Structure formats: structure tokens, C-alpha cells
Amino acid sequence: MELCRLPGVGSHGPALTRWFRVVTFDPRGAGRSDRPQSGYRLDDHLADAVAVMQAAGVARASVIAGSSGANVAALLAARLPDLVERLILIAPAIRVEPAGPPEEDNDTDFWIERVSYKGWERWNAPYWRRDWPGFARWFLEAAFSEPDSQTVIDAVHTIALGADPEILIQQHREQHRGLDDLAARAILGTISSPTLVLHGELDQSVPLAVANAVAATIPGAALAVVVGGGHRPDIRSPELVNPLLVDYLRGQELTAGAGIEIQH
Q1: pLDDT at residue 97 in the model
Q2: CATH no. for residue 251?
Q3: pTM for this one?
Q4: Are 240 and 247 in contact (CB under 8 A)?
Q5: How many domains are contained in the chain?
Q6: Is residue 49 in some structural domain?
Q7: Is residue 255 included in any domain, yes or no?
């Protein structure tokens, strides 16, 4: 079986390569991929995923994606269902609520300079430009909120330091202007691939209610919750998550285990 893992740090490799051929890649603007000055819409990332699959000779694959990458995976499964055998969305940062009035849906706060920054006020272009390492450290400490996560935080922080905040700012600009955050929500109900949504119970970045809504909207989707888990339990606790992923990808029935609850 082929497996395509969309961009995002993960700890699946050794566990999955025993059973599957795994294809993964760096997203445009990061890692060893090109860093163009523009071209960061969801459709651009979707085209990249398809191009990688074609270049790797993959006609059909199961797809794993996490956090914001879940938007691209959902679009892939909805628009090109023949390419996606199974779909796994981990901590999907997919906007599930309807769009509000324009005055409530602007991104002014992202661009304004503040006197001080607390909590999610750090999700802000001037702050990223001023102290990207500080933002990355704060974000990862919130993402990996489980006890004894410092080793994981330090490892992922080293990777995050290689990101260019200007590219992330440009991506925010393009996707907000293009209303990309509404794209995945609109097509969740059309996904026909068997789907598993995996989420941490105590995720501080994407509330569990979002995962519930995503799973409830995708026909037949299952929801697995990591008890006490933060934003990326697949990275923090692969010893819990990987066996579940392997079982699901191999078509076996999902069963609750130590630290994991099956809610749908």
C-alpha cells in the first residue's frame, strides 16, 4: 500500500515504513523546497501534493496530514477522490464555523503593532518579524502541553528556526484574501474516502470541538481522542498513536486502547 504524508513534522516514519511505502515532502517555502515570493494558496499546496504523487509514481494512496495541512488533505480527498484510499487528519486546523460579517472576519489584528504581546496576540506579523524564535518557542510550548515535553519542544523548535517568517506572512496574506480558510469546510461533506480524525483531548491550539465537527461532517468518519493529549499527539506520543494509525491504514477495526478513546 502507498502512503502519502503531507508536510508537517511527524514521528510516523519507522512505524509506517514497515507496512507501507511512504512518500513525504517539504512544503513550498520550507525545508529543502523552493521558496518563491508568492504562490501559497491552498490550491498551490494541493497542486504540489498531486505533483509529488505523480513524480513518485503513486496512482492512489492513503493520506496523512496534521494541523493546517489537514486543509490540503481534505481538498485532495474531495476533489480527487480516486487518488485517496484512506484519509487521516490529525489535529485538523479546519475552520468549521460559517463566515461572519466582513467586519468580524478581517485580519487587522494580525498586522497591527502592539505595545505588548500576550497569548495568541503573538499570532501577529510584527511580532513574527521581531522575534520569530520567541514566537516559535511559545507556540510549541502551547502545542506540546503534556508534562515532560521539553525534549520534543526543543527538537521541533530547532526545525522551526529554519522557517522564514516573511514566507509565512505572505502565505497568511494570500490565503486570507482568497478566503481559503472557508474552502475545506465547504467540501468536508463530499469526502468519500474512509476517514479517521485523531485529536488530543487537551489541545490548546485547535479545540476538541473542532475535531468533533470535522468528524461529524465527513460521512462515516471516525474520531479517536488521545486522553490528555495536546495539539500533536502523533509527535508527542507516537508509541500510543502509531499502532492505531497502522491498524486503521490496514483496514482493521478501530478499538480503544490505553490512552486512546474512540468516539465515533
Answers
A1: 80
A2: 3.40.50.1820
A3: 0.94
A4: no
A5: 1
A6: yes
A7: yes
